[in-house]
Design a protein that fits this description.
The chain is mostly helical and 103 residues long. It contains three helices and no strands. The chain has a domain of 72 residues.
């Protein structure tokens, strides 16, 4: 007949050490590393910022497409833009630019 071995009770010091180790591991897993709560929170904030930036870029793309269409279809707008932005003029014109003094 085999005798059942009695479990030896762990000392208080050993129980405390195991508690500290397990608590430390749980803390480390929860708050440090790639899958931690902090990294998930940071990633969520970054994703929201990226969504906002994406929406702004979509608006900018639409505005640019509209301006390209104006350049292609509206000759008056093209002439006006060339005069204002690049200072272009016709052969028989003389353009005088007025510079405002800073006060």
């Amino acid at each position: 007949m085999t005798r059942l071995k009695r479990r030896v009770p762990l000392s208080k010091k050993l129980k405390y050490m195991l508690f500290v180790i397990i608590t430390g591991l749980l803390f480390t897993i929860s708050f440090v590393g790639r899958g931690s709560f902090l990294s998930i929170y940071r990633n969520r904030i970054k994703a929201n910022q990226n969504k906002e930036q994406y929406q702004e870029l979509l608006v900018k793309i639409d505005e640019t497409d509209a301006e390209i269409n104006r350049f292609l279809n509206d000759d008056e707008y093209l002439v006006k833009y060339a005069r204002e932005e690049f200072g272009m003029q016709r052969k028989d014109e003389h353009v005088i630019k007025l510079i405002e003094a800073d006060q």
